[in-house]
Amino acid sequence: MDELEDQMVVKTQELTEQKKGDEAVAEATELAQLDPKDAIVWFMKGKAHYVDSQFEEALSCFSKAAEIDRENPQIWHMMGYALITLNRLPEAEQALEYVKATQPTNAEAITALAICQVMLLKPDEARRNIELGLALNKSVTHAMLEHFHDKFFSISKETASNTKAIIERILETIKLIR
Question: What is the pTM of this model?
């Protein structure tokens, strides 16, 4: 990667962090044309699409990044989020299991895995991963669970009432042990 590409990666990251998805996608698209064989480029492009709520495109970019760099847990972590958003839960679970295996102290990935497992109606596995997430980083785990509850579970018409009940019980338990 040359200096121009490095600057473009930094700019794409800044735009992504500022939630300027359309601008980040434009920058990342140009970057991908310059260096289509770089996993970081495809990862950044995927994140830009994800921020812009273009989840299929994000998944496609994360997949290209994973083809180039199969063992990078960050790629699989973001791919897990995209797969959850697209309701491809068994694939999301596999991606996040990989992240957990390679980064056993990554509370964010472990909590995402737990959320995925709740959605797959695997309450025992979900509970174990939530407990692990809480042990690793209680504030991150709690914030993620509340975010997913507020932005997805509580308003989703597709989420079964028993799944909503599991998440609500978990949130109540966390509030008690805070």
Answer: 0.84
